[in-house]
Amino acid sequence: MEHRRYLLTLRRFWAAAIAAEMEYRLNFVLATVTSLGNLAGSLFGLSLFYLNGATLGGWRWQEACMVLGLAVFMDGFSRTFLVPNIGRIVDQVRSGTLDFVLLKPMDAQFWLSTRNLSIWGLPDMLYGLGIVAYGGTHLGLAPWRYLRGVLPLAVALVILYSIWFMLATTSLWFVKIHNVTALLRGVLEAGRFPTPAYPRVYRVVFTFVLPVAFLTTVPASAVLDRPWGVSWFAAVPLALALALLSRLFWRFGLRCYTSASS
Amino acid sequence: MRHLLHVLRVYTAVSYADMMEYRAEILLWILSSIMPFVLMGVWMQASLNGTLGMGPTDFARYFLCVFMIRQLTLVWVIYDVENHVVQGTLSPRLLHPVDPFWRFFCDHLAERLARMPFLALVTGVFFALYPASWWWPGLRSVLLATLCLVVAFLLRFIMQYAFAMVAFWSERANAIEDLWFFAYLFLSGYLAPMTLFPEGVRRLAEWTPFPYLIYMPTRILMGQPTDVVHGLAVSAVWAGAFFIIYRVLWRAGLRRYSGMGA
Q1: Looking at the predicted complex, does its ipTM rise above 0.90?
Q2: Which candidate, A41, A58, A38, A47, places its Cα nearest to that of A195?
């Protein structure tokens, strides 16, 4: 019963958000073109390594493409589901309207995380999967091999969401954190290259401090069947721990929240 | 002229005081633009097999320069102008006996000043962590690079300001900037030294304004031979063209401007 109410609300939220975005259809076209330009550029940037005879940690061009594709997909995901909501959270904390959200007969974290949706990131998600398919096809991967990436990808999305929500929660103290979005993107950009392509120090940071490796390299290596030290099984407890932590952090933040101008 | 200089000084001082309120935000902005250091890691690792013609130290210096230059020539005026036009807050600025251009310009100048201490800190930490990369380009190179940096900033500012004029017609002028920004990222040398680019792309890029925004000052700082005259000439032509576009659009736009919310 309870979850049906949430599903219904979710549908209403997203229908309203999409309807609002439809105001700017021309911009959607522009966003598509921009994404395409970004994509071409990213592929170009990646190809510079291979054109000059270098490799990325021993990964072949097609394999590196799959990692890049996943990074583009993640970027699209965060621009569709995460980024549009963070601005709203910040505004609500600043103006005090967060109080109304807290009073609603609904989980506030759910409300804040799903209220908005932007279709601007959808082209990126599609292109990203396209590059993954390109890399996979050129490697002659059987279609069922992609299925092995589904669970690691889901885990990666949970990790990304948890980090994002923890960053969003900090707005309860620091109010002005619009640039947290930029910070998140910075983290994602590090995921454009296979983690083994980095020097040792970076690899340690990207595995144990900022879990960048788990966002793109781990799902890609699951599909490629290319073990490199960190199995994606390690990502499951990490994702669960982060999800739990983001929840606890939010509860802790609320206890410190004193509302605006009161 | 003297009156204008006085106004500019006051604008900058006011803006600087305002920035000082949000020092933490400036730090966050800087942290969110660490991409050059990520790229540095990948390129340093890739250079180990010796096919790139540049060693790890060269790449470290290159990307430190890219980071600094990018920080010092950062421009976001289109978002400001767009806000002021869409929300109608441009109106009070139009009543000032000074072209609104200068107020936006001074905001950028002041932000540069506020950023300096943080940049010095980043540089200090960088050399402390990697002392082998320390170098002193010589006074002549530093002065020449400073000149190029000023030109790069002015060029980037005038280009974006011209695009910002589109805000009089569209509510999301920044979509154009987004598109332009990708060309900037890929052709400015931000991703990699342009010596690694394919010949054709490099030839083409030489006639765009982009290489002179990052790549040329970086080369000068690294003590490599550079055709500064060509670079400055191309920059001047582009700046002139965009200045004309800006003036034409500004005149036409003001006539359309309705002062929303007034």
Answers
A1: no
A2: A58
Half-sphere exposure of B217 (CA within 13 A, CB side): 29
CA distance A107 to A119: 24
Residues B221-252 pLDDT 10s: 999 998 999 999 999 999 999 999 999 999 99
User: Domain segments of chain A: what residues?
Assistant: 2-256
Across the interface, whether the CB atoms of A197 and B46 are under 8 A apart is answered yes
Q: Which of residues 72-131 of A touch B (CB under 8 A)?
A: none
Q: Which residue among A30, A44, A180 sits closest to B186, beta carbon to beta carbon?
A: A44
Per-residue exposure over B19-53, b if at least 16 CB sit within 10 Å of its own CB, e if not: beeeeebbbbbbebbbbbbbbbbbbbbbbeeeebe
What are the residue ranges of helices labelled H in A61-179?
61-77, 83-95, 98-103, 108-114, 122-138, 150-169, 171-174
* Cross-chain residue pair B179–A33, CB shorter than 8 Å: yes
Q: Given CB atoms, is A38 within the 8 Å cutoff of chain B?
A: yes
SS3 (DSSP) at B260: coil
Give pTM, 2 decimals: 0.89
pLDDT tens by residue, A12-55: 988 998 888 887 777 778 778 888 888 998 999 999 999 998 88
Question: Would you give the DSSP letter of residue A59?
Answer: B
Residues of A in contact with B24 (CB under 8 A): 174
